[in-house]
């Protein structure tokens, strides 16, 4: 797009990256008085680049004449109908997201149960007569083959379904178009993939992907059609534009969180924290409605499935179980301890992210072929099973079976009536292990067991995140944290011999919060999610303290996991505010220039040539007064998008030059909506030589009041306008309202606050 | 301000109100195809007017040269210091708000205890020997005299401290300057006033005013000085502007909610729902921090005060008590019942608001003298006591004393070991009555008692809201709702004889939510507040359903109570979105015109004359190129505020005309900050005749990049820009960047969606 303009003007600021990797310490001195620390000499691939391959979404309505005419025709009652449709769609999003979550839960439970029973029977058989290596082989092979299928479909059919999908949804809500991210195919692969990953015994959770699934459902329903299935239900046509779709996707993401954790308020806050920039009361209320419906659907269906209809006891995919207020109260003296746990969580989280960073760099360089990715996933699955088996085998931690709630108790070498306690952690789905760590009575775990488990699981989870399978990182993080938190609690009660620290479950909860906070660095929403998942409000304050500490400590070292992956993808992501020290920059220095402008009445050939120019590939064009005398730079009259021009050309909306008095063919808004969102490329539209000489009148289709800034506006001011209104193009004009430049997402996203002050990322076509 | 411009152009739309009260049905037809319903002939005073007396706040930074120079001088480390200061201020806001809440709670508890014990002893004495009218007299006199003091200080010292303060804070966060609203004096009067109102036995709560108190504390602390006390601590000078102050006031309001209900997340959502337009992650996290600190402070101090230190069991001024999940689970069959309760709550809430509306109109017309206001407050206090006494006296509902938790059991004519059950509702602070209704075991109340109580309390609360005392409406609403909800629950169990409806406390809770929702129409935040106050997440879904139903039903009849009072004050309040049918209007029709512009180098006399012009009283002036040839309309160069001009004139920043080469005196940002927020009026600045002939160069002080819109922009587009960025002035320019008009808050707030389509309110100086 205009977004793709490489800056031609030399910048006086630090520009780091592949293209120009020079250390301009003098320039830094101009910016800050601090002496900058020396940077490492080798700057890794991809880190300080912005990719030009990502396009933006149009979150600002193009208020052209067609749109205004339609809006003016709609009366008050019709607007009420639109509003009711919005609510209906949100209810449908909630219901469907809840049902998808139910499906995942039930299938995983059954398949995983099958697998664990099979392996348990095998182990029980071989424990007596020796030859446990067969059991290991069975376990590892089962895992590897299930994961192979899960990885195959992701790697070969829809690679965007890999991972948790949270970074992708963050980008989408931020306004970056990630190809295929909200397609039906992605949903199918995601759902199958996550089931296979969890059943395959990887150190992953099924919660994160729910957010992505909810978003896809929302995007699909709100459009009333599926372009993949070529089915158009002819409903909800009013919502076929980026602005409306984004609002529903927010609701879908919230419904996903809500279904995953039984946390409807947390879901709303997640959507707002990660996505929204403009807080709108009605929108928020609708998002909340979708969230509530989602958790309620899940709850009802699962209650019926589990045979105790109407008791509504499973609001989410994971339930942390009841934390009784009496038993687990905290006192004011424990607060410093919680803060200390936050510090530990921050450090361990940063370590996790740093390791994962190097791993991801390695993967980008060497494991980019799909076959290799599948092999790696299988390897991880086999290793996970092996590590688990060896740990269980070596563990001599036996616990009485009576009174415990272990799902698949492995006896192994324990006495009769006892079970191997290491197996509760490894030989189980991670969700169940988390709940066990929270609620098993004191003394259920040997400290040695917990320590070993923490270390091994930490490395396994770190290795697993980033594999080509769909899977989330929430549950493994919680599990690691719960393990060391419980260990911490046990140590405390050993050390102090006081009954006040008696319950290690409380510390397991705080550890889980600290570890998760240290890895993903979410704040308000995570506090509320944890509060809702525990069903207990009293823990709010310590959880907040722990998360805040973990975030502050973690941010000192490296970024959060999701932000890190977004940056590794070189996505032009706009943060909340412009870098604090960027007041020295103005729109003049930031903007892309020169800008390709169109005249209000333009020759078709010119339009086609401009659109076909692959070297610039602009997406938005200022429309200027069509005075033939003026040069390119001229008074701004409007702004028109590539997608609009494509539709105009496709429908041959133009008149012969010799006969300008003829009326140009009229288009309706419906023509634009039908083409949305997959506009054809310019190459697919045939324009004959005669047609090239025709004229096209853009007045009716251009947005006559695009937002503009003067050249003197500072970067933070431009940024605020751009971010608050969700813009894609911002025209920079001079004192006479003449176009001098264009600011797009990439022009703003490239400025970043590095360790040495303001940095400017390079742009690249990768 | 320019905000004060009366529109000179005739409008083609409905203009209703005092100034031109004509029914233009033809015009309505142009807008909608629906046939409009006939409006009542008499349109009450004040309803369809916007007052011009309210000024706006500047939530958009004036990025002039001085500001940019300062920002550029600040390096990264210094910005970190600013950030740390923000956190420190938020912590202080939380602590102080918590302490103020503690103070109110402890004083009210002691004074009210004293009063009730006194009256109870008296009643006990006279029950035996007859002459209970003395007791009534004592009770009524005590109440009336306490309320008299409370009303006197409000009416004569600081009238803005009346009521709950929530409408005022809503306006402040919306960007309307309400005089005195965040002053220290207001806080003192508010705190004393609320104590006296509650002790005086009015049907009021002490929770709503906490929101106002928190806001004042925030505004005070963040400025590092008190203009009332004339103390400047020379700290936090960076925060002396409207933008920063607003952020802290949001945090203060959240801290207030948090202290009132023990609901930190609810507090954050309240601030966002009522105030913020731009969602900023860092800001939200700070607000949450202040909220958490506030409830934690309150909890700690009250725990220590009540002698059970460290148990942290009183997170808010009102605690709904523990709702045990086992005992009070709901089933799916109850959901239609809850929805029905929501409908009842919506209707009763609308009735409450409608009655209060007529009462307020009456008060505006006839009770505007402070003495009369005090007399009315005393009358209400006496009547409240009398009604309570008569109800208690007539009630024959006796309950066994054993096992009940009544604070001041009145025996009256009951047998020994029994108490009068009506007295638990009337002879107690409303907070305690609410908790009793939630938690007293089934059978504690006679249905007759509850019915009578609901009716009487409904009218008393309705009469009380709007009195010249500081007091909130949350608790009375909850109390009314809890009473009829409990009655409803009892009826259900009578009717069905099923044990599933056994616990009427659940229905009391839903009734309370429905009634409160029906009156105030808050949505997401109220759901979360109720969830947090009950400490129980499982009720989230039914509470949401109830609140949503109550809001939809209530909105069908009249507006919410706060919005109604804001409208009765004719405040130019900007809602979330422009009216849906306003696409037919453009900036050209909406803007105020003509605009008074200044030249970049302007004669001092001209500036003084323009500022002194009381007929226009503009607050923002576009600065245009100082070409002497051009007429008034000319290319826009910047925007300067009245307050900035005042500071310039005060510091004599100008040079003689004959000697333009001389350098004008330099001002620092500090000079503007020192004058903030009470800029002197122009009349207090003496400018001699010689000085009038001097020239003043505005280039350095004006904002060189004001936001602009073209004339063709539609009203929703202008509205979105204005609201999202928190603007005060938006310059309308033509194609040549020449100033043609100015859009201010009043130009946007006057368009409203009435029953018949788009309405245009009139502007008046009242």
**Percentage of residues in strands of chain A:** 5-15%
Specify the helix fraction band of chain A. Answer: 40-55%
Structural class of chain A: alpha/beta
What is the molecular shape of chain A?
Answer: elongated
Oligomer: homodimer
Structural account:
Chains A, B: Keywords: CBS domain, Chloride, Ion transport, Membrane, Repeat, Transmembrane, Transmembrane helix, Transport. Chains A, B: GO terms for molecular function: chloride channel activity; chloride:proton antiporter activity. 2 copies of one chain form a homodimer. In chain A, the strands form 7 sheets. In chain A, strands 1, 2, 17 and 18 form a 4-stranded mixed sheet that branches. In chain A, strands 9-11-12 form a 3-stranded mixed sheet. Chain A has a 3-stranded mixed sheet with strand order 14-15-16. In chain A, strand 14, helix 26 (715-725) and strand 15 form a beta-alpha-beta unit. Chain A is elongated, with a radius of gyration of 28 Å. In chain A, helix 3 runs parallel beside helix 6 and helix 4 (132-157) runs antiparallel to helix 6 (184-199). Chain A has 766 residues and is α/β, with parallel strands linked by helices.
């Amino acid at each position: 797009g205009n977004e793709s303009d490489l800056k031609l003007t030399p910048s006086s600021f630090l520009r780091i990256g592949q293209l120009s990797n020079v250390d301009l310490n003098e320039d830094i001195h101009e910016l800050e008085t601090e002496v900058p620390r020396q940077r490492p000499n080798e700057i890794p691939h991809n880190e300080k680049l912005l990719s030009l391959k990502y396009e933006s979404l149009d979150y600002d309505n193009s208020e052209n004449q067609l749109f205004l005419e339609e809006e003016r025709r709609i009366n008050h009652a019709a607007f009420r109908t639109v509003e009711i449709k919005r609510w209906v769609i949100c209810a449908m999003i909630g219901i469907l997201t809840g049902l998808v979550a139910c499906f995942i839960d039930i299938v995983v439970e059954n398949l995983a149960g099958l697998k664990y029973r099979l392996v348990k029977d095998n182990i029980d058989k071989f424990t007596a007569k020796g030859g446990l290596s067969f059991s290991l082989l069975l376990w590892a092979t089962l895992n590897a083959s299930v994961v192979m299928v899960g990885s195959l479909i992701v790697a070969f059919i829809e690679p965007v379904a890999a991972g948790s999908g949270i970074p992708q949804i963050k980008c989408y809500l931020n306004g970056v178009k990630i190809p295929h991210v909200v397609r039906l195919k992605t949903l199918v692969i995601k759902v199958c993939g996550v089931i296979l990953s969890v059943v395959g015994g990887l150190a992953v959770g099924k919660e994160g992907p729910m957010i992505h699934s909810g978003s896809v459902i929302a995007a699909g329903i709100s459009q009333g059609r599926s372009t993949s299935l070529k089915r158009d239900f002819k409903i909800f046509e009013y919502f076929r534009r980026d602005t409306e779709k984004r609002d529903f996707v927010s609701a879908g993401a919230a419904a996903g969180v809500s279904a995953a954790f039984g946390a409807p308020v947390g879901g709303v806050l997640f959507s707002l924290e990660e996505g929204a920039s403009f807080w709108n009361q009605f929108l928020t209320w609708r998002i909340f409605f979708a969230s509530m419906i989602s958790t309620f659907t899940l709850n009802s269906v699962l209650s019926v499935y589990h045979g105790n209809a109407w008791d509504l006891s499973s609001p989410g995919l994971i339930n942390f179980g009841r934390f009784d207020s009496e038993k687990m109260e905290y006192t004011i003296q424990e607060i410093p301890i919680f803060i200390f746990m936050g510090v530990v969580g921050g450090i361990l989280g940063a370590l996790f992210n740093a390791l994962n960073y190097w791993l991801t760099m390695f993967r980008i360089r060497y494991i980019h072929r799909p076959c290799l990715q599948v092999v790696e996933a299988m390897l991880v699955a086999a290793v996970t099973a092996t590590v688990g088996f060896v740990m269980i085998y070596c563990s001599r931690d036996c616990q009485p079976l009576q009174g415990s709630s272990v799902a698949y108790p492995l006896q192994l070498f324990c006495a009769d009536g006892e079970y191997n306690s290491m197996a509760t952690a490894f030989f189980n789905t991670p969700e169940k292990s988390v709940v066990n760590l929270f609620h098993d009575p004191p003394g259920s775990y040997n400290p040695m067991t917990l320590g070993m488990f923490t270390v091994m699981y930490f490395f396994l989870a770190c290795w697993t995140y980033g594999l080509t399978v769909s899977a989330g990182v929430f549950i493994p993080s919680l599990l690691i944290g719960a393990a060391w938190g419980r260990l911490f609690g046990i140590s405390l009660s050993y050390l102090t011999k006081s009954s006040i620290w008696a319950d290690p479950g409380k510390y397991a909860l705080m550890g889980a919060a600290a570890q998760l906070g240290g890895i993903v660095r979410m704040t308000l929403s995570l506090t509320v999610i944890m509060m809702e998942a525990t069903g207990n409000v009293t823990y709010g304050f310590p959880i907040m303290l722990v998360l805040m500490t973990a975030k502050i400590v973690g941010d000192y070292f490296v970024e959060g996991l999701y932000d890190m992956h977004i940056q590794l993808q070189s996505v032009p992501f706009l943060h909340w505010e412009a870098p604090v020290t960027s007041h020295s920059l103005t729109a003049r220095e930031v903007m892309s220039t020169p800008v390709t402008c169109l005249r209000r009445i333009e020759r078709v050939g010119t339009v086609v040539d401009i659109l076909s120019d692959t070297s610039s590939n602009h997406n938005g064009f200022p429309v200027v007064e069509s005075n033939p005398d003026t040069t390119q730079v001229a008074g701004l009259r409007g702004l028109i998008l590539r997608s609009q021009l494509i539709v105009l050309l496709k429908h041959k909306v133009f008149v012969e030059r010799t006969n300008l008095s003829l009326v140009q063919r009229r288009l309706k808004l419906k023509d634009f909506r039908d083409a949305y969102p997959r506009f054809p490329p310019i190459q697919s539209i045939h324009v004959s030589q005669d047609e090239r000489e025709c004229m096209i009148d853009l007045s009716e289709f251009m947005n006559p009041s695009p937002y503009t800034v003067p050249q003197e506006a500072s970067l933070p001011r431009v940024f605020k306008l751009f971010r608050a209104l969700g813009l894609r193009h911002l025209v920079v004009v001079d004192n006479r309202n003449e176009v001098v430049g264009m600011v797009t997402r990439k022009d703003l996203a490239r400025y970043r606050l590095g360790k040495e002050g303001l940095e400017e990322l390079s742009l690249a076509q990768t």
